[in-house]
């Protein structure tokens, strides 16, 4: 894939979500236009969270695949994004 | 089915009549969508969800050889499935069809309504994101898993029992977990129910008794859900069961131990503080299970190491002071939340004097006093002097429809005030003056308006206004109320022997903690949040977890029963297939670690 689309599932009262947000902002700076991050508030868009079966936030889906539930280490998150970029079509 | 990289994306823009078309420039949105990477086809339709609209989507998928579809229309909780089915019918995977809500910015009455230019910009951005998301989306591998043929019902009130019995009768193993020592919930303590004035425990007993003997039902009282992990079809549950200090196999519920126990205290659960119980007690005569329980906090043996009279008196040697909290593991396919409600604590409304004035009580307390099996044997007596009140004032909407407490209407208070007024007039104190001070009488259920009219015909006095304050005469305990009645244009001064507060219905204690354990949302008032307030009232944000009864919002018994049956029906529909296809990540990624909400 030439690009990566990250869905960052969060909710207003979530303790771990700001840490994920910060990581993704840093990674957006690194990957620039190869990375698109969309913040999805599960209290507003419940349908999308339901489709992924998300039971707690933060949660991260990369190109439509749920990869992390909870706060990942930044290296893990970066590795998952790189793997997706390196995937064949 | 198409699974390769997306090359041909179709965008469909719905007018929703004038709901969307009246609020933004559709042509401009069509033009901007055409410029997006991967988009080969853009179409607009007056109603995409109509039969014609759906056919148009399917035809375009086939004629244009589309492999991804984005519909810009309305709330996906309503119509995503509709369009995913269209996609599937036309030959593409449901997951490659997305529905985004642009109507929220254009529809009159929407809290998000924006000016047309802003609505257009927001819609362009949302379509662009959705197109990109669909373009890059990979097909999620599905795995087939077996579904456990069992259900956890949290809460053993009328809604939980109804849902549990429905499923047990269908053949599922049902675990009903109740926090209190008996099932039956609030209904068992209401004495009578409107609009039939049936005896509440009498019409509830067939359900509690059946649940107690049903071969498919495991009743776990004095128990709480500690943790939940997993996904639909395979939830792993940990339940803790607190000790009763009674061997329930041996206890016959004879009550010998209760009679001989030397410790008496105020019963706040089953009499609302209007009666007393012992340190060892049986909640009430029709309790299920009818087994004794020791309140360790007040038991002399647990506090001081002395007494043990109950142990000596028990004819079946059922007392077991060594019992410990048990952890019970279970695996279930679905969960139904039926945790009911609590009564608002009116001490927060200091103007009414609850907690300071002895003769100000709540409607739940009144129900216990009127109950012939209640703490006074059905005699309505003033708490301060034990005399019959001659003048009774009920005050509606205490803590409801109140910006300083709860904004919402509690739904049932008008009716239970009418019920209690009827009972007092017809069965308890026919000569007492009864006033109901109200904002509006809301009697919208079947037979409710007739019930209201009948109450008026019984001579109950209705005052369209509420007192701003209650003052107590310190020597007599009588209560003085000034009420402005706009219907007659007078300020009324009422001297009452007893004031009864019709308090709000609030979420049951522990709802917030349970929502965290289950991962389901609460609404702005703290009740469990449904997927859609009109069309999906018992589903939650987690597939396989359903809500019913007053846990979802204030409601009366018939509505609770209807929701309970709906929740049971949903659980059955999901589990009866015995196997279910789920995204691989849902099955694998269940190490719910991290510092989430």
Describe the model.
- The complex is a heterodimer of chains A (89) and B (597).
- Chain A has one domain (4-86): 3-Layer(aba) Sandwich (Glutaredoxin), CATH 3.40.30.
- Chain A is 39% helix and 26% strand.
- Chain A has 3 helices and 4 strands.
- Chain B has 4 domains: 9-142, Rossmann fold, CATH 3.40.50; 150-242 and 325-336 and 507-577, FAD/NAD(P)-binding domain (3-Layer(bba) Sandwich), CATH 3.50.50.60; 256-313, no CATH class; 344-505, FAD/NAD(P)-binding domain (3-Layer(bba) Sandwich).
- In chain B, helix 2 runs parallel beside helix 5 and helix 3 (51-63) packs across helix 4 (76-90).
- Mean pLDDT of chain B is 94; it is low at 591-597.
Short description:
The complex is a heterodimer of chains A (about 90) and B (about 600). Chain A has about 90 residues and is of the alpha+beta class.
Main sheet makeup of chain B: 5 strands, parallel
Terminal-residue CA separation of chain B: 38 Å
The major beta sheet of chain A can be summarized as: 4 strands, mixed
Oligomer: heterodimer
| CATH homologous group name of chain A | Glutaredoxin
């Amino acid at each position: 894939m030439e690009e990566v689309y990250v869905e960052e599932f969060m909710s207003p009262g979530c303790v771990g979500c700001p840490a994920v947000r910060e990581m993704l902002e840093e990674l957006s700076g690194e990957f620039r236009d190869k990375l698109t991050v969309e913040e999805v508030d599960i209290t507003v868009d419940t349908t999308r969270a339901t489709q992924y079966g998300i039971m707690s936030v933060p949660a991260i889906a990369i190109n439509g695949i749920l990869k992390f539930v909870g706060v990942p280490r930044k290296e893990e998150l970066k590795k998952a994004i790189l793997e997706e970029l390196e995937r064949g079509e | 089915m198409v699974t390769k990289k997306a090359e041909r994306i179709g965008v469909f823009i719905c007018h929703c009549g004038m709901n969307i078309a009246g609020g933004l420039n559709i042509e401009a949105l069509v033009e901007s969508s055409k410029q997006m990477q991967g988009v080969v086809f853009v179409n607009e339709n007056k109603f995409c969800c109509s039969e014609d609209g759906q056919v148009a989507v399917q035809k375009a998928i086939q004629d244009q050889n589309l492999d991804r579809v984005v519909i810009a229309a309305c709330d996906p909780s309503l119509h995503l499935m509709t369009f995913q089915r269209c996609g599937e019918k036309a030959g593409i995977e449901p997951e490659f069809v997305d529905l985004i809500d642009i109507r929220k910015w254009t529809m009159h009455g929407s809290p998000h309504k924006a000016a047309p230019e802003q609505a257009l910009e927001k819609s362009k951005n949302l379509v662009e994101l959705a197109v990109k998301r669909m373009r890059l989306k990979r097909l999620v591998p599905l795995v087939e898993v077996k579904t456990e043929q069992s259900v956890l019902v949290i809460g053993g009130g009328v809604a939980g029992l109804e849902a549990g019995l429905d499923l047990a009768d269908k053949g599922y193993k049902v675990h009903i977990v109740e926090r209190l020592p008996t099932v039956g919930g609030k209904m068992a303590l209401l004495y009578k129910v409107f609009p039939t004035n049936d005896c509440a425990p009498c019409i509830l007993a067939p359900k509690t008794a059946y649940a107690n003997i049903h071969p498919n039902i495991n009743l776990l009282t004095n128990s709480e859900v500690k943790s939940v992990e997993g996904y639909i079809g395979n939830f792993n549950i940990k339940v803790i069961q607190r000790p009763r200090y009674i061997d329930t196999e041996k206890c016959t519920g004879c009550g010998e131990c209760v009679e001989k126990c030397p410790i008496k205290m105020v019963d706040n659960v089953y009499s609302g503080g209007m009666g007393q119980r012992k340190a060892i007690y049986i909640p009430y005569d029709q309790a299920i299970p009818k087994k004794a329980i020791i309140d360790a906090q007040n038991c002399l043996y647990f506090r001081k190491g002395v007494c043990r009279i109950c142990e000596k008196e028990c004819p079946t040697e059922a007392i077991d002071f060594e019992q410990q909290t048990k952890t019970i593991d279970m695996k279930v396919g679905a969960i139904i939340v039926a945790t009911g409600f609590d009564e608002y604590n009116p001490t927060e409304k200091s103007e009414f004097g609850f907690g300071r004035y002895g003769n100000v009580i709540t409607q739940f307390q009144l129900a216990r006093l009127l109950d012939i099996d209640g703490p006074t044997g059905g005699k309505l007596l003033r708490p301060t002097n034990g005399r019959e009140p001659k003048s009774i004032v009920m005050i509606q909407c205490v803590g409801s429809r109140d910006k300083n407490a709860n904004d919402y209407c509690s739904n049932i208070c008008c009716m239970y005030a009418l019920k209690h007024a009827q009972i007092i007039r017809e069965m308890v104190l026919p000569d007492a003056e009864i006033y109901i001070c109200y904002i509006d009488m809301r009697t919208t259920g079947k037979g409710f308006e007739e019930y209201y009219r009948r109450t008026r015909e019984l001579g109950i006095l209705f005052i369209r206004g509420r007192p701003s304050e209650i003052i107590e005469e310190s020597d007599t305990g009588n209560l003085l109320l000034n009420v402005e009645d706009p219907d007659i244009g007078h300020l009324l001064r009422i001297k009452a022997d007893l004031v009864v507060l019709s308090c709000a219905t609030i979420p049951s204690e522990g709802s917030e903690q349970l929502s965290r354990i289950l991962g389901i949302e609460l609404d702005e008032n703290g009740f469990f949040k449904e997927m859609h307030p009109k069309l999906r009232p018992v589903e939650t944000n987690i597939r396989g977890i359903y809500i019913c009864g007053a846990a979802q919002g204030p409601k009366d018994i018939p509505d609770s029963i209807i929701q309970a049956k709906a929740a049971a029906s949903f659980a059955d529909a999901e589990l009866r297939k015995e196997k279910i296809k789920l995204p691989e990540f849902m099955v694998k990624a269940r190490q719910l670690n991290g510092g989430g909400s």
